[in-house]
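Many introductory courses stop at the sequence. We go one step further.
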Amino acid sequence: MVFSASQIALLINGTVEGNAEITVHSFGKIEEAGAGQLSFLANPKYEDYLYSSQASIVIVNESLELKKPVAATLIRVKDAYSAFAALLGKYQELKQQQLKGVQQPVYIAASASYGEDVFIGAFCYLGENVKIGKGTKIYPGAYLGDHVVVGDHCTLHPGVKILHSCQIGNSVTVHAGTVIGSDGFGFAPQADGSFSKVPQIGNVVVEDDVEIGANATIDRATIGSTIIRKGAKLDNLIQIAHNVEIGNSTVVAAQAGISGSTKVGKGVMIGGQAGIVGHLHIGDGAKINAQSGVSKNLEAGKAVTGSPAHEYTSALRSQALSRKLPELEKRVKDLEQLLQQMKPA
């Protein structure tokens, strides 16, 4: 696909500075882009590349003051990073609109149904009473168990598994290899030391505008629903246990794990490899630093770090003091020697 600077500016509400008719056909990083490519500059530390870039068009902030002449056509916007992200989204949307129809071979149960303009890739499995909304794209090798519901304009990437009775809202993206609706980890200890499996008869509900990364696992509830609220963003390789609730617009980075029945509020930020024990409440807007181990409820807006997790600024002060321990030890020894010398004979 080929677009002119004027067409791109119209899409992102920008102002062209240079040749409005110049065209691009692909994207490139500002330090590597060549003729016919579009790039962007948002981080000031990359500004030097702007003056040597071979890109045909570069999206920049309105506030940028040029220090040297620039060969590329510029499109000025309020926020170059957001504008570039929006443009990539539109480009991807245009590409996906070209995917329609049902490839072969697939298995689609007679009771399954799907809306207009869907794409169902080869080797997909749609079980009994599956319902797929309009404009949804299901890539090859995906599995949708019985009674699964997927809303409008969703994207399920290759190898996604959505097990029976789970519900997916509108405009949800699930990346390759993710499993939604696997059994929760529930076992009852027995008198002889063995464990008896507790049947997991609930489901998973994923609300609108959620994105879930690759190879994540979201377990079904024992009873009721595991819930991922509207606008939440989950990274790759995340474990969400049974009956967990993730609040609106919460973000969780890779390799984090959230244990059963924990309720995470809205707007929470959870860093990579963080671990949260079960049956906790994480308040709205809380921030959990990477590799933190959270074992207690967190108040709204609180920031913690460490394992076990401590209040963020206090933990940083403790870390700073710990680095000074060798110096403090030397000072104590020097004082002890001085006191010893001051003792009367």
